[in-house]
Task: structure prediction
Amino acid sequence: GQQLNQSPQSMFIQEGEDVSMNCTSSSIFNTWLWYKQDPGEGPVLLIALYKAGELTSNGRLTAQFGITRKDSFLNISASIPSDVGIYFCAGSRAGTASKLTFGTGTRLQVTL
Amino acid sequence: EAQVTQNPRYLITVTGKKLTVTCSQNMNHEYMSWYRQDPGLGLRQIYYSMNVEVTDKGDVPEGYKVSRKEKRNFPLILESPSPNQTSLYFCASTGTGTYEQYFGPGTRLTVT
Result:
């Protein structure tokens, strides 16, 4: 099955810095979702995007649905230690609410 | 509290010994899915269900079975586990009209 390409694979940043990560696909998706997974836990939904070009925020997180519908971006502003974890993008096509294709993940580590 | 629960959380077993991992959700969601997560491969869908008695294969269904006799439960069955099924397994559910999947806490399975 297809997987979405996420970059970077991992990143070390200093507390207070802004973070950007992206997710690309060779095919179109109608919905993009961003999840965060803490060690030993299941993924937790952060942001859902439903329209091409849409920009949505959730606190310090901002995500965008790419205009081509083949990509999405997640930004975290003023990172804090609890932002540590793995961030996954996921895409869904119309009529397949139960079927998500996940990205390979971006591991974020924050240094003080 | 709205949640997806899985049991057991940890399981060590031997090759060929049938096992079942249970999944239950209390949100009255129609859609439920099973994923496995392996290092470097992200989350891959095993099976999904669109409603009671309606199931379909995901991207990696070989060696697994599922059933959906009740809306709230979606057990994953390994009839004859093999070492390559050692993985971290997640159950997820999605409500009608949304693409947002909510994940359980995970089951770490080791097959020796």
In short: DSSP finds no helices and eleven strands in chain A. The two ends of chain A are 39 Å apart (CA to CA). The mean pLDDT of chain A is 91.
